[in-house]
Design a protein that fits this description.
Number of domains: 1
Length: about 280
């Protein structure tokens, strides 16, 4: 198993290096994060209700959690769907422990791209935004939060990618994700929402990731705008841990069933359908 993980890490490193040296890919990765900087500028002068803290900084940090969730869920699912369609998964299935190595590699790729995108825009955000800060405590928070962020979201993406066999169908999943964005305190403090919506939001990782990032990158005084007036680190670890354990427990079975259905004829049929949609 150690050898398979090592191969997967190497594969992911190669894919990450390739995508980060492709100008078109890099533009696509950085554009969403760059738009957050624009939001930060446009919100100058607005404050979090009940405080004198800049609403733009609150929204920027929370939106980083949104990007992580979208990357962990949607990007992972899209990679699996595309690789099912072009036969990459079939080739991985044909090699010993190929699926494990494949998934480790995709995990490295998705996590690496997400972290690099955030690291590129954060320095600019600290320059143009008011109130952002990163002390020793915040850095320690990020050390446990970032791994949990991907462990709690990427298994979901892997399962969705196994259930949908084309990227076009997967695009419909953005609708419920945008719904979660609206109720998870991303663009406005969650305390402004009705109590039942607050409860729904706290079931899913997006709220907890946003809360964790705010605790790491915003002043402690802003905790007054959070539910219960606390950063709630322990509940954050528990909730993200539950999603991580559940995802890691369920994803292998879903992926094994998907892999058993993969065959040359299935790949050919998907290619035929794709060519028909393109009018070829």
């Amino acid at each position: 198993m150690t050898r398979v993980i090592r191969i997967g890490l190497a594969r992911g490193g190669v894919e990450l290096r390739q995508t980060l040296t492709n100008a078109q890919d890099v533009f696509g990765y950085l554009l969403p994060a760059a738009l957050l900087l624009v939001t930060l500028l446009l919100m100058r002068g607005s404050t979090v209700p009940g405080t004198d803290f800049a609403l733009g900084a609150h929204t920027f940090v929370s939106s980083l959690a949104m990007l992580v969730v979208i990357a962990g869920v949607m990007t992972t699912a899209q990679y699996l769907a595309m690789d099912r369609e072009d036969g990459t998964l079939l080739r991985a299935k044909a090699t010993p422990d190929g699926m494990t190595g494949y998934l480790v590699g995709k995990g490295v790729l998705v996590a690496g791209v997400s972290v690099v995108s955030c690291l590129v825009v954060l320095p600019a955000a600290f320059v143009i935004g008011d109130g952002l800060e990163l002390g020793a405590g915040g850095a320690l928070t990020l050390l446990w939060l970032v791994p949990l962020a991907f462990l709690s979201t990427m298994p979901i993406g892997a399962m969705l990618g196994a259930l949908f066999d084309n990227v076009r169908t997967l695009s419909l999943l953005m609708l419920p994700i945008f719904g979660l964005v609206g109720i998870s305190g991303i663009f406005y403090p969650i305390t402004a929402l009705p109590g039942w919506l607050q409860g729904v939001a706290q079931i899913f990782p997006m709220y907890w990731l946003g809360l964790g990032l705010r605790s790491a990158l915003l002043p402690d005084a802003l905790v007054a705008a959070e539910l219960g007036g606390s950063w709630r680190h322990l509940p954050t670890v528990v909730m993200l841990g539950i999603w991580s354990v559940a995802g890691l427990a369920l994803a292998p079975g879903v992926l094994r069933r998907m892999a058993r259905r993969e065959s040359g004829s299935a790949v050919a049929a998907r290619r035929e359908r794709a060519m028909t949609r393109m009018g070829v």
